[in-house]
Amino acid sequence: MTNSTITVDVVFNLFSFIIETISFFVCLILLSAIIYRIIEIKYKHGQLRIDIPLILTINIICSILIKSTLQIIHITIPTLIKDYQIMTYFQETSFSRFRAYILWSVVGVLYWSYTLLAFFRFTRVIYSTKRWLHRSSLYVYVLIPCQYIFVFISLLPSLVIFNNIDLIPNEAYCTIVFSQFYFALYESSITFSIPFSIVGIFYTFIVRKMRETSAIRQGQELDRRDYIVIRRMGLNMMLLSMMALPFMIIYIKDIIQNHYESILYRVQWLSSSVGSGLFSITLPFITTRLRDILKPNGIAPINNQHMT
């Protein structure tokens, strides 16, 4: 690699570290605010029921916290150590491969957590009469655990069957090797493409539902709010797709040349960090209840609020 390429690689990793750190602390602040408000409401009012959007928001926040921690530990810090030549030799181990599998699984969980929030908005607009779809127990005990189980099981073949999690040449960590195209396509579909497509489908159905409504009635205000929220979520996903374009361009070039450079993986993890930052910063804009919690006087009992 030339000196300019090495410099670009270092800059990408530093930016990734900065964005991931900001995402971590933003989510830590959000989670702390939620816990504080819950304790305060519980103390003042005695009874408390946490609504579904807040549950799903906490799920997203926890996913970002875990993902940011793992990426900093597994990707960023070893890369910084290598870039600044503190340590130049890294060995592939079973533990490092397993750590890469966990990181990729958590990345997938993050996108599926976002999709789960979109699913709630979708069911509330399209299947508003199906009350069982709007029960918090369905999400807490079924959908959220199933989301983790699905992603971890779906990506397990990468570790034990495809065997395409390896130490990257000229890098300090193990990750999914993109030289095996079909396996990489499968893993990318599980972690990003399928969740992104589902959010798009939900958005399309909600748009059709809203267009079928000719008059604005009071009972439709909740539907319109859900429409606005899922539109913002769709915009976030579109921005993430645009952020993935540089990676795709480099990947196509590397496929043609049959040579995969370090910058491909640097851009990939930088895009991943931007995704974490985007999710964490926009959460208050897609969950009204979270935005209310962040207000100085936003401590009304949750069970007296609409689920927003």
From TrEMBL:
Lineage summary: Eukaryota, Metazoa, Spiralia, Gnathifera, Rotifera
Annotated transmembrane regions: 12-36, 56-81, 101-120, 140-162, 182-207, 233-252, 267-286
Residue ranges occupied by any G-protein coupled receptors family 1 profile domain in the UniProt entry: 112-287
Keyword presence, rRNA-binding: no
GO CC terms of this entry: membrane
Protein localization: Membrane
Protein name per the record: G-protein coupled receptors family 1 profile domain-containing protein
InterPro entries: GPCR_Rhodpsn_7TM
Keyword Transmembrane recorded: yes
Swiss-Prot/TrEMBL keywords: Membrane, Transmembrane, Transmembrane helix
Gene3D superfamilies per UniProt: Rhodopsin 7-helix transmembrane proteins
